From TrEMBL:
InterPro entries: AB_hydrolase_1, AB_hydrolase_fold, Epox_hydrolase-like
Record-annotated AB hydrolase-1 domain positions: 24-129
Organism (species): Thlaspi arvense (Field penny-cress)
MF term (GO), any: hydrolase activity
Annotated Gene3D superfamilies: alpha/beta hydrolase (3.40.50.1820)
Name of the featured protein: AB hydrolase-1 domain-containing protein
Family matches, as PANTHER family: EPOXIDE HYDROLASE (PTHR43329)
Family according to the record: Belongs to the AB hydrolase superfamily. Epoxide hydrolase family.
Keyword tags: Hydrolase
Pfam families linked to this entry: Abhydrolase_1
Amino acid sequence: MEHRKVRGNGIDIHVAIQGPSDGPIVLLIHGFPTLWYSWRHQIPGLAALGYRAVAPDLRGYGDSDAPPDISSYTCFHIVGDLIAVITALTEEKVFVVGHDWGALIAWYLCLFRPDKVKALVNLSVPFCFHTTDPTVKPLDVLRKFYGDDFYMCRFQVR
């Protein structure tokens, strides 16, 4: 497995890569609060099947840069980072696999840049938007259904 940094979207993005350089890319997007490492068992399997498995650490995670300003962590920034990774590795569309919070980012990638995505598989989350009411905060909905001990609620700064 190769580890390298891709410079793009104003930051250095760490990626773990395994598989033939001419193989179709499978972009593996980790969840919260994990890293590329959560894909460590799938990467060799995909590589053995002829795919080029690419697992980045998203901005603010692991060995990728962590800009200090909270406004640098919008879905647009993170999708921009993934586009930088894709562009650095191929001109082709890629397969995308998202897990947990990474699934939400994967959906945004597909919505914002369908020209870069061949197919999408998401794990551990349903596709849904809970409300069209802009006054309802997603975290409040999660707290209501799952309680304060739900991991997304527990990891909040108060």
